[in-house]
Amino acid sequence: NAGVMQNPRHLVRRRGQEARLRCSPMKGHSHVYWYRQLPEEGLKFMVYLQKENIIDESGMPKERFSAEFPKEGPSILRIQQVVRGDSAAYFCASSPRQGANEQYFGPGTRLTVT
Amino acid sequence: KQEVTQIPAALSVPEGENLVLNCSFTDSAIYNLQWFRQDPGKGLTSLLLIQSSQREQTSGRLNASLDKSSGRSTLYIAASQPGDSATYLCAGLLNTDKLIFGTGTRLQVFP
User: Fold this and answer.
1) B49–A91: do the CB atoms touch at under 8 Å?
2) Tens of pLDDT along chain B (111 residues)?
3) Residue B72 has what pLDDT?
4) Contact status, residue B87 vs residue B8, Cβ threshold 8 Å
5) Searching chain B, which residue's CA lies closest to the CA of residue A90?
6) How far is B94 from chain A (nearest CA, A)?
7) Apex CA A97: angle with CA B69 and CA A99, to 5°?
8) Rounded CA gap, B66 and B53, in Å?
9) Which residues of B touch A98 (CB under 8 A)?
10) CA A97/CA A99 separation, integer angstroms
């Protein structure tokens, strides 16, 4: 049973470009969470999604950031018009159901904005 | 607002020492408490998960305890080894299904 997969592992974008980060949850998991780790800071919750639904996006910046988890395919975190302050490690986690015991984390995508 | 604090922020010890890492949270309404390990530039490895109804969990040289009433958790590492060097994170799961992470303890174990 493969773990949570994220790609790309490293992503370099110039200011103003778009970044798309992908997360494939563990098999059988329908709940996905995105967290961001800024340099020298702790991990912060961004968004919680179920298939085709955003459950909680209280941690998402108001502009330029969006997330989706379609019926088919991976969850996508999209950052439009990236700025240097978006440089961070973005981690995805999945769980089989709401209120599940544990969230399983992927290896992360490290975004660098030049 | 739930906040999670970890003490100490950094720790450097010789190999073989027994260690205690502390985690405190402001809101006792957590579902569970997880301890993670993060190596530089890497992802998170889950070490131990303590349910809100439990007091402690053990795995090998690691033991984690949880005291909800005082808002504290500790991670005990026995007979530390250089391979234990990493950042250790605790995280509380809220009823909103989001994990609130602590600030981390950076551990270095030297031979």
Assistant:
1) no
2) 778 999 999 999 999 999 999 999 887 778 889 999 999 888 899 999 998 888 999 999 999 999 988 889 999 999 999 999 999 999 998 877 889 999 899 999 999
3) 92
4) no
5) B43
6) 9
7) 15
8) 9
9) 97
10) 6
